[in-house]
Design brief:
heterodimer; A: 136 residues; alpha/beta; Rossmann fold; five-stranded parallel beta sheet; 5 helices; 41% helix; B: 495 residues; alpha+beta; Beta-Lactamase; Heat Shock Protein 90; 3 domains; five-stranded antiparallel beta sheet
């Protein structure tokens, strides 16, 4: 298989989630860098800074919805805004513990988004997800 | 001289169409002048001058009376003064006013009768029409089932019908001593008087309005009033014609409908509020409960998969379980606020509650040294003590936490009374919030607005729930970086 190593980013204010997801991601040998953001603003700043530096940008970005100050939806809106000028080679996933219909309905309206992943993000889910990505 | 007088008299008789007759009752010879023939519409050639000819023209119902009167006049030498009906040649009825008396004829050397007949049919017809219209008016005005009245330009009742008297509870005599102004509800008088003025100035032809009258027994009745103005030939206003009908039932029905509508609206608002609360709870469950619990699931699973070691697993489990416990405690608190049936209120003093909040936050106050001013214009209020303590504590605690580090913290709190409510105004010059962006988050569970602070995001959520539980509202006014002001409609003043 012709596999390329991936950069994976997580935007989540949940410290425990970040610790666990780092361990899980490291477990897969496909990963080059893990980029962790504890709030949406930091993520946005990073992406803006590296907009022309594709090596630094995450290939996959997992975004939590419920975050203080700027929530996941706000971040996605900002990213889409940026892409009006410059498309970014990032696959974006929603990764939330919310199973509310409101969020799921909203997700359907965003064609830019890859998938709505409901927490817990298990080893099996991650495995399948990475497998799908690397196949394409 | 004699001639001139005769011409004058003749002219008078001719223009009024008064016929003159002379009757020698001894010989029963009757002579008529030209006017008599005109009055009776008779041809002088066919007329033989006999008394019978006259009698044949008189209305059969009137003839006996007239004959008797003539006899009385002859017997008593009195004046014959009467009214009767005759038929003209075409059989039409004519009305005649007749006068006659005895004169001594110097030639005959005895009495003859001299008389006049005056055709008053035209007047009579007008009179009949007048009587008829009076009768019509009588029926339309006095027998009407709704109130009707003639009202003077000054407002005095000139004439009123029975319906109006019954409606207002006054006798006719009583009502005629009053003016409409005296029995109009004060709140409706100005509108009525304005209409009256417009009517008098000719700006409008008539007007209708819904208004209240005060009945004799003091009860207030809703009425529909229609008014028009009667003017004379010279267009000078004479009096008002008013119609007054009872619309109390319609009004009462309307009011009942309105009340029911309001109740429905209240219920729907309450439902909306409950739905909001349910959504809020589902959000809390999704994030604050599902979050930590999915972390626990993953921690255990990763431990089994040897992704993490035992020490790390326990550490993470500790954090997650603490987060769970804290959320549950907060949820419990909010449920307690929302579901508590009885909220016993007692008289609380704002000053002592404020002092207590300051005492509890003593450490933070010592560090930040805020300038605190207060003005409790309303000193005491009936309220649930734990809530007001919590409200003051949360407000003060937030001000101390979200202050601007580079300037002196100012806090101002005051209470006052307006529109039957006790208001609590709380203001600081801290970070404030961008309400356009965050007004929703401000009162949401576990939402913090400022990064870099260790906020639990529960304080204002609880505060709002507490204020609303006692029927009040809380409105934030703020711009980012310009401090925050809360207008809290605390509680309705008990009378």
């Amino acid at each position: 298989m012709n596999t390329k190593l991936l950069n994976i980013g997580y935007v989540d204010d949940d410290v425990v989630f970040q610790v666990l997801i780092k361990r899980l991601t490291k477990h897969f040998n496909l990963v080059k860098n893990i980029i962790q953001f504890y709030n949406a603003k930091d993520a946005l700043n990073f992406l803006n800074k590296n907009i022309d530096n594709h090596d630094k940008l995450p290939d996959l970005l997992f975004v939590d919805l419920n975050m203080p100050v700027m929530d996941g939806w706000d971040l996605v809106d900002e990213l889409i805004n940026i892409e009006n000028n410059k498309p970014l080679p990032i696959k974006i996933y929603i990764c939330s513990s919310s199973e509310s219909l409101k969020d799921k309905e909203k997700f359907k309206k965003y064609s830019r988004l890859e998938q709505y992943v409901v927490k817990p993000l298990t080893k099996n889910t991650m495995e399948k997800l990475l497998h799908d990505v690397t196949l394409h | 001289m004699q001639n001139k007088r005769y011409i004058k008299n003749r002219f008078a008789l001719d223009s009024a169409l008064v016929g003159v007759w002379e009757w020698d009752y001894e010989t029963n010879s009757l002579s008529w002048d030209d006017n008599m023939f005109k009055v009776y519409d008779a041809d002088p050639n066919e007329f033989d001058g006999a008394y019978n000819a006259w009698a044949s023209r008189v209305h059969p119902a009137d003839i006996d009376t007239q004959v008797k009167l003539l006899q009385t006049c002859i017997d008593n030498n009195s004046i014959f003064d009467t009214e009767f009906r005759i038929f003209d040649s075409k059989g039409n009825i004519k009305y005649i006013i007749a006068k006659a008396k005895l004169f001594y004829d110097t030639d005959l050397k005895r009495n003859v009768m001299l008389g006049t007949n005056w055709d008053v049919t035209n007047f009579k017809q007008k009179d009949i029409e007048y009587q008829e219209s009076l009768k019509k008016f009588e029926i339309i005005f006095h027998k009407a089932p709704i109130g009707k009245a003639l009202v003077s330009l000054q407002g005095k009742w000139l004439d009123v019908n029975d319906s109006l008297c019954k409606y207002l509870g006054y006798s006719k005599d009583e009502l005629l001593k009053l003016s409409f102004q005296e029995i109009t509800h004060p709140d409706d008088l100005n509108e009525d008087l304005n209409n009256v003025n417009d009517l008098l100035e000719g700006k409008i032809e008539d007007y209708s309005m819904e208004k209240r009258y005060v009945k004799k027994d003091g009860k207030i009745v809703w009425s529909m009033l229609n008014v028009s103005l009667m003017r004379d030939h010279d267009n000078k206003p004479l009096y008002f014609i008013s119609q007054i009908s009872d619309i109390d039932n319609v009004k009462v029905l309307n009011n009942t409908l309105e009340e029911k509508n309001n109740k429905l609206e209240e219920i729907s608002k309450d439902l909306e509020f409950k739905v909001e609360q349910l959504e809020e709870f589902s959000r809390i469950v999704a994030h604050n409960l599902r979050g930590p619990s999915s972390n626990i699931i993953n921690t255990i699973s990763f431990y089994h998969s040897k992704l993490i070691d035992e020490k790390e697993a326990f550490e993470l489990l500790g954090i997650s379980s603490e987060a769970l416990a804290s959320t549950l405690a907060n949820l419990n608190q909010i449920l307690f606020v929302r579901l508590k049936d009885e909220i016993p209120s007692e008289e609380i003093e704002f000053q002592s509650i404020w002092d207590k909040a300051k005492k509890l936050l003593f450490q933070q106050i010592k560090e930040t040294k805020p300038n605190i001013s207060f003005n409790f214009k309303i000193a005491k209020v009936e309220y649930f003590l734990p809530y007001i303590e919590s409200i003051f504590y949360n407000l003060l605690s937030n001000s101390l936490k979200y202050r601007k580090k580079d300037i002196q913290l100012e806090i101002n709190v005051e209470t006052y009374q307006e529109d039957g409510w006790v208001y609590l105004i709380y203001q600081d010059n801290g970070l404030g919030i961008d309400l356009e962006k965050h007004s929703k988050k401000l009162f949401q569970f576990s939402q913090t607005i400022h990064s870099g602070f260790k906020g639990t995001g529960v304080g204002m959520f609880i505060t709002k729930a507490q204020v609303e539980r006692l029927g009040g509202t809380i409105t934030p006014i703020s711009e980012l970086g310009k401090g925050l002001k809360y207008i809290i409609k605390l509680v309705r003043i008990k009378l």
